[in-house]
Write a structure and sequence with these properties.
three-stranded antiparallel sheet; about 20% strand; disordered N terminus
Length: about 190
């Protein structure tokens, strides 16, 4: 019993990023340097009901808060499909979303805009993108997220008003993109609200 409890205990560590963690998500000209980023490894509950350990790259100023969010989600049993830095997808936001990957830092322009995405600063996280799609001008990103457009039919992994996922991020004063009018981004949580 003691060994089982140890295996199921929440894990949360913070370390400097390695080159491989940001190989495809960082490039010259990004608004933050790799030295300002941290690799956060946290336990999460998979859709298979089992405990897993995943990794996110975030800004060093938010790393501890991010660990506290994932501790809350883990203890509540909130399911996450996968969690790996976007560099595993060669920096492709589209590929990461299609894989239903929960991710943080990715130096890129904002979708539908010209400025930097909040992900470029390491202060935004997208959670379960298929279950929580971004709806932009009628386009659903990722495409598989179309099955989750009816937000009143709550299913596992969905971010909903008053739910555990939204509440966990609100506990660190982050804002949810699901409240954006016109182009809700249900997967998106950020320190700035953008």
């Amino acid at each position: 019993m003691h060994l089982v409890a140890l295996l199921l205990a929440f894990v949360g560590t913070i370390s400097p990023v390695r080159q491989q963690d940001v190989r495809f998500s960082y490039h010259r000209g990004c608004p933050v340097a790799p030295v300002e980023l941290r690799l956060v490894r946290v336990s999460y509950r998979g859709f298979d009901g089992r405990a897993h350990v995943g990794a996110l790259v975030v800004h060093r100023s938010v790393a501890r808060d991010v660990v506290s969010v994932y501790r809350r989600l883990y203890l509540a049993g909130f399911p996450i499909r996968r969690m790996t830095p976007v560099s595993a997808f060669h920096g492709s936001d589209d590929a990461s979303m299609a894989a239903d990957n929960t991710s943080g830092f990715n130096c890129r322009r904002a979708v539908g805009g010209t400025g930097w995405s909040e992900h470029s600063y390491g202060t935004a996280i997208d959670v379960d993108p298929v279950e929580n799609p971004y709806v932009l001008n009628g386009r659903v990103l990722p495409r598989a997220g179309r099955a989750y457009l009816v937000r009143t039919r709550v299913r596992r992994g969905m971010a909903v008003e008053g739910g555990v996922l939204v509440g966990a991020f609100e506990s660190i004063r982050w804002k949810w993109g699901g409240r954006w009018s016109g182009s809700p981004d249900y997967q998106h949580f950020s320190a700035s609200g953008r």
